[in-house]
Write a structure and sequence with these properties.
This protein is an alpha/beta fold. The chain is built from ten helices and seven strands. It has a single domain, classed as NAD(P)-binding Rossmann-like Domain (Rossmann fold), CATH 3.40.50. Bound molecules: NADP nicotinamide-adenine-dinucleotide phosphate.
Length: 261
């Protein structure tokens, strides 16, 4: 095997079947882009169908294929329909990228119970339910992979006041990842998380458009800048490919050095 084929075999995702949630914008769209470009067949999931279809049009000529499915993951019954979609549209599921997420800002003393619950329900409970629903497909895969998109706020508290529900949910997601690795390794499934710092997306728009806050957040980042979605997607590719076969139960920070403080 020449070097090109060797690396292609290690880092490629040719013919692998992947579900990517939250693929209608921001990081999820880029995660879908890199997987389809690496040869995976992707089921892109989010609520906004037209955004998913635009992404599918953009990725028509890549190495893999992209299929779309509009679904609200805050609805448990909807989550249960996803494995069937993956079976119908992809023929199974080897890779689950649990990326859909949300954030609300309110200080601990002011936060309404339903707002706290909405964040934890989507960022944590829905990720568990989704993985549980996909487990029968993942265990049939030769190499099942779960990659949960956590956050630096899954490893430590937020430097911005008011993100406690988000912080709690992402700490829980890190715990879920480690539990999935421990319980499901024997079924040939690895589970890892990625912990991004700040990347410009719809979710971070308000914070990053605020000059004072944006400067503060850059100061917390040793590299002094925010990340680019592609810089996150390459970490995902590693965790989904053969190259990471013995990497399991870890949290990979893609954070410009934030967690090195
Ligand atoms: N950007 C950052 O700096 C950063 C840092 C750390 C972690 N993260 C994490 O990265 C992930 C992606 O965030 P992003 O920054 O790319 O923000 P984003 O552009 O707002 O993306 C969020 C995605 O989640 C989907 N989503 C939200 N609620 C949903 C629901 N109920 N059902 C199905 N899909 C839903 C959205 O699609 P629809 O609205 O179409 O449903 C969208 O595609 C999140 O888990 C976030 O916590 C982001």
């Amino acid at each position: 095997m020449n070097s090109k084929d060797y690396l292609h075999d290690l880092f490629g995702c040719q013919g692998r079947k992947a579900i990517v949630t939250g693929a209608s914008s921001g990081l999820g769209a880029e995660l879908a882009r890199v997987l389809v470009s690496a040869g995976a067949d992707v089921l892109a999931v989010a609520r906004r169908q037209e955004r998913l279809e635009a992404l599918a049009n953009e990725l028509q000529d890549r190495a893999g294929t992209i299929h779309v499915h509009a679904a609200d993951l805050s609805d448990n019954a909807t989550i249960d329909t996803l494995p069937e979609q993956a079976r119908e549209q992809l023929g199974g599921c080897d890779i689950l990228v649990a990326n859909a997420g949300t954030a609300t800002r309110a200080r601990l003393e002011d936060m309404a119970e339903q707002d706290f619950a909405a964040v934890v329900d989507l960022n944590l409970k829905a990720q568990w339910l989704l993985a549980k629903a996909c487990f029968p497909l993942l265990r049939q895969s030769e190499a099942g992979r779960i990659v949960n998109i956590a956050s630096i706020y899954g490893l430590g508290a937020s430097v911005i006041n008011g993100l406690s529900a988000y912080t709690v949910s992402k700490h829980g997601l890190v715990g879920l990842t480690r539990s999935q690795a421990v319980e499901w390794s024997r079924h040939g499934i690895t589970a890892n998380a990625i912990a991004p710092s700040y990347f410009p997306t719809e979710m971070t728009e308000t914070a990053l458009d605020n000059e004072k806050m944006s400067t503060r957040l850059r100061t917390f980042t040793p590299q002094g800048r925010f990340g680019q979605p592609t810089e996150l997607a390459t970490a995902l590719l590693f965790l989904c490919s053969k190259a990471s076969g013995y990497v399991n139960g870890t949290v990979v920070p893609v954070d410009g050095g934030w967690t090195a403080w």
